[in-house]
Amino acid sequence: GAVVSQHPSWVICKSGTSVKIECRSLDFQATTMFWYRQFPKQSLMLMATSNEGSKATYEQGVEKDKFLINHASLTLSTLTVTSAHPEDSSFYICSAGRPVQETQYFGPGTRLLVL
Amino acid sequence: DAKTTQPNSMESNEEEPVHLPCNHSTISGTDYIHWYRQLPSQGPEYVIHGLTSNVNNRMASLAIAEDRKSSTLILHRATLRDAAVYYCILKGSRSGGGADGLTFGKGTHLIIQP
């Protein structure tokens, strides 16, 4: 199966700082990538759809100015959590889709802890 | 997307078959049935998907009811590494699994006893 990587795998930061998470599709070009967030003992929640070369599409209730998404190439999407606060502590997971295959490939996730 | 209903948890013994049910009574004619699983502290991984006919792959089998209002994921011989949360997700053929984000329900927490 296709491989999607994320970096870093975990990060601890102070409240008020910004954190950037990278998502890469390693063996195929992804015009669309997705960002999810998962709180402890809860299911994944779609945050936004990242489109190569255009603006991201955010789900209802997700602040676009707080969660900046950039999809500069067909293999890289980044999520920047700006002015992070403890309530932003979560497991962030990206995925990339191959439309013709009807499946998505998920990264291993990034665990963010904001102190 | 149409809603799915799964048991919160199931328990099985190692090396025995496991049948994970999913109800989707409001499924539309073009919805594909997808299964993903999430091992502890990892991102989800694709398991299998189908439309009408039963499907088999190296990981599992998918049995789809004739009226398509329910389906069952079958792990033929469970191992401890199969302990995970299993999600049953419907996606329309319009978008396919790769073009739209997925809506995850609570899934079924599968516990495997040695």
Structure description:
With 115 residues, chain A is an all-beta fold. Chain A has strands spanning 4-7, 10-13, 19-25, 32-38, 45-51, 57-58, 67-73, 76-81, 90-98, 103-106, 110-114. In chain A, the strands form two sheets. In chain A, strands 2, 4, 5, 6, 9, 10 and 11 form a seven-stranded mixed β-sheet that branches. Chain A has a four-stranded antiparallel β-sheet with strand order 1-3-8-7, with no helix packed on it. In chain A, strand 4 (32-38) and strand 5 form a beta hairpin. With 114 residues, chain B is mainly beta. Chain B has one helix and nine strands. In chain B, the strands form two sheets. Chain B has a five-stranded mixed β-sheet, with no helix packed on it. A four-stranded antiparallel β-sheet of chain B has the order 2-7-6-5, with no helix packed on it. In chain B, a hairpin with a 4-residue loop joins strand 5 (55-56) and strand 6 (61-64). The longest helix of chain B is centred in the last third of the chain and has 4 residues, at 96-99. Chain B is globular and about 40 Å long. Chain B starts with 8 loop residues before the first strand and ends with a strand. At the A-B interface, strand 4, strand 5, strand 9 and strand 10 of A face strand 3, strand 4 and helix 1 of B.
Shape of chain B: globular
Number of strands of chain A: 11
The number of helices of chain B is 1
The geometry of chain A reads as: globular
Helix content of chain B: under 10%
Total DSSP E strands of chain B = 9
The pair of chains with the biggest contact is:
A-B, 30 and 26 residues
Q: Report the radius of gyration of chain B as a whole number of Å.
A: 13 Å
Mean pLDDT of chain B: 91
End-to-end C-alpha gap of chain B: 37 Å
Order of secondary-structure elements of chain B:
EEEEEEEEHE
